Amino acid sequence: MVALISVSRFIYKEGKASLRGDIEVRRDDASRQLVLRQRDLKLLEGKAPTKTAGSLRAAAKLTVDPGVPPGAYTVQITVRDLLSNRQGSAEGRFEIAGAKLPRAQRLALITLRTFGDAELAAGSVVPLALTVGGIQPTSGPTGAHRIELALQTELLDASGAVVATHRGKLRRGGLLFAPSSYPFAYGYALPSSVAVGKHRLRVTVSAGEAKSQKELPIAIVPKRFAIVSPHLYDAGRLPRDTFRFGEQAFLRFSTQGFKVDKGRCKIAVDLAVSGPGGVFLARKNAAQLSGPRSQTWARVGRFPMQLPIQLPKLAPQAKYKVLLRARDLLASKVITRELSFHLEGEAPKPLGSFRVDKLYVRRRADLPRIKGDTFIGGRRYHLEVLAGGGKLKRVKRATYKLRVKGTLRIRLPTGVALREYKELFKYDRTLTYQPLRVPLTATWQVPSDLPRGLYDLEIQLLDPDRERVSTLRKRIEIVPPGARP
Length: 485
Fold this sequence. Notes:
By secondary structure, this protein is mostly beta strands. The chain has 4 domains: 2-96, Immunoglobulin-like (Sandwich); 101-223, Immunoglobulin-like; 224-347, Immunoglobulin-like (Sandwich), CATH 2.60.40.3880; 355-479, Immunoglobulin-like (Sandwich). Helix content is 1%, strand content 62%. The strands form 8 sheets. Strands 8, 10, 11, 12, 14 and 15 form a 6-stranded mixed beta sheet that branches. Strands 25, 27, 28, 29, 31 and 32 form a 6-stranded mixed beta sheet that branches. A hairpin with a 4-residue loop joins strand 31 (453-463) and strand 32. The model has no long low-confidence stretch (mean pLDDT 85).
């Protein structure tokens, strides 16, 4: 989650400025429970562009704990100007969506599931997702809460006899709130000597004398070259199968059963993400294992991997697939595996024919958007145009070519052109899918010699391959350098 911050009228001293920010997130109810606190965020430090009182737009990333229940929250942002010893604050509201975690009066293992394979070979890791209720966190001297639970996993054979036992801990510290239920993720490694057949995995959580347990069926199969238990995590390190557009996800899986020669192995994994319209992401050799680094995993017989995936932003709301292809280069074997997930959110609608859809204005590419109605002469602005629509030119099987050129003009309200910037926007790519929109970006410096007044900003895009032209016009105000908007 990102909080956008706008600060004005802070002091520049000897050409420098120093701004710090504090952020608090609380429940928007009578309890006003504090769930997040971030101190001394550096908003601006060092050389400033002018010596007059200025303004700043910045973005602060907020990481909310996965144990925070859904509902309405308020965020309070306090900005301190260290050079003038002044501060200002503002408050906003937002809502966390999702299903509420079930509550329990006493310690209980509420949910237990595996988000990996139901059939695994000996030595594999079973990824578990569990929700524990009836928790009573401990509070430290600083007031932060801590969860610590004992975890015991027992592997039972078909007759009910215990084959293997493992003990561990479930820990989570530094919590500003005291949850009664909390989600955890845990990986259980199967013994390498377990026999083939049907088994059950018994998981027991305990705190003092209180205990709760559940069981899961697991089938042990002969070891072969395979991609094992692929699953997607979010930034909070919890497994999910539904994500939002543009979200950061992490793909975890492992390969096993590969050939070992002289204590080493040689593996390569290719990755792709496909959905409506084609392949949105393709990486050849996204993960590789060879040379001296492979000796450790060759002894273990398993190679775990984690690959970051930036999910598409301008795509349909639909079901998607992660495609994995693993190659054992020593044994000349190739295997594939698929994993399905959903993307949801406010998906852009198809445009039909080719046209310019939106214009976004930023002071810099790394800053949040601004309204873009007033431009200061001599300043540089980052412009982003979204365009789409129509069918792309197909150059070969499942491959499309898209070329777009854009010209920016400044006109008087009467239509007379004053300035023209030819081919300021350019987009020339070969795609493996037909996107709903494509972003075209450019840096534009506003002319400093134009008098203050109203103008028309015109952006004209040309698709030469399909002989399509689209124009976007926006009424703007240009003010001289040094003047206040």
